[in-house]
Amino acid sequence: MSTVELKKRLVISGDEHELELRAEGSDSMIQSLSDTFIKCVESADFEISEDITEPERPIDIEHDVVVIYDNANLPSLMHRFRRTTDAELFGGSQKVHPAFIIGGEIYDEIYISVYQNTMINGKPYSLPMAKPVTDITLDDFEKACFSKGEGWHPMTAQEWGLIANLCAKSGVFPHGNTKYGKYHADENEHGEKYDNNRTLTGSGPVTWTHDHTPTGVHDLCGNVWEWLRGMRVKDGILYQCKDNDAALPETDLSKDGKDWETIKDDNGCVIRCGQDNNGNLIFTTREDIDAEYAGDEWEDVNMEAQSETLKELAFYPGEKKAYCYADGTDGEYCLIRGGHWSSGANAGVFYSSLYAPRSISSAFVGGRSAYFKKHRTPCPETL
User: Fold this and answer.
1) Where residue 27 falls among pLDDT bands split at 50, 70, 90?
2) CA distance 91 to 169
3) For residue range 177-205, what is the model confidence (pLDDT) as tens digits?
């Protein structure tokens, strides 16, 4: 993928005007657009005063939101997030947040869908005012995202953790469709419903974005739950994949996949979930807990295990009134986050549920794709 920015200053009837081309896409598409732009300008019936910018090669465009095309040559609006450390996010160590470590290499940026995805010809896209995809299993959503081409993948638990931590750091949390098209705490905030419950992607106000700005990521709170690849609970034990390797199609995260790793506390002990003596959800390294399903507001969750890894995943009381559910019984339960159209005060970017089997297909659950530009040559920053 390449980016380009071209500008021409023109004189038309004695007045100066500026034409500008900005684009991002495949190398061949960028070359074609650049050639067409220059050809059209130079063949037009007016005088060219001077070039402002005509780079010999594409240059980077420093915008938060960009358009990226997939292998079907269809666009998605994506938000660029730049590399950060645990120390910068939540006062952790100086290590790079795992969302930016893929295949052992450190990336300067990743791209997250601005909108909950909609399906076009079996592929997910980030587009405004669209019906979000639902009724899809985790495995099928993963396949659809990976089918878009190199770098495309389902949003991962590590990437959601990054955004949730950014919200906690700023103290700004997204509102959303938590009460049948409206925001439960302020019903003047509403989106455009397409049925009795769900809203079209991005149809709510700016407070429904992760940073309350027009360029923020929409609908991380409510509307429909979102599948996230790379975290689960199995037989009461928490698992993740290494770094952000969930972004790679070759990473085996099937039910019995070889690339799952146990999540550990800061002393290297395996973390479990279940129910404590008071009936509250607990994350602990102890084995003498009730292996049960439990859920609480985050401020009431018993965080007995101290773990930088859990903080990277935003599994801590960063949004105190949002809920967290986890199933500590036998079996595999995968991660969905955000909540849905009737979650009310439970919903939020920290709202977490580790009780969904990967096989579930529901009108309550959808997802969004993400992207990274794979290094073409070995990166000097490797782990």
Assistant:
1) low
2) 10
3) 999 999 999 999 999 999 999 999 999 99
Q: What are phi and psi of 237, to 5 degrees?
A: -110, 135
DSSP state of 248: S
In angstroms, rounded to a whole number, what is the distance separating the alpha carbons of residues 36 and 38?
6
Q: How many domains does the chain have?
A: 2
Rounded average pLDDT over 99-122: 98
Residues 191 and 296 in one domain: yes
If asked whether residues 366 and 232 sit together in one domain, one would say: yes
Which residue is associated with the tokens 């992607």? Answer: 201
Task: Give mean pLDDT, residues 82-95.
Answer: 98
The parent domain of residue 162 ranges over 65-371
If you average pLDDT over residues 336-350, what whole number do you get?
A: 98
Q: Are residues 101 and 219 in the same domain?
A: yes
What is the b/e burial string over 294-324, where b = at least 16 CB atoms within 10 angstroms of the residue's CB? bbbbbeebbbebebebbbbbbbbbbbebbbb
Nearest to 274, CA basis, from 328, 232, 316 = 328
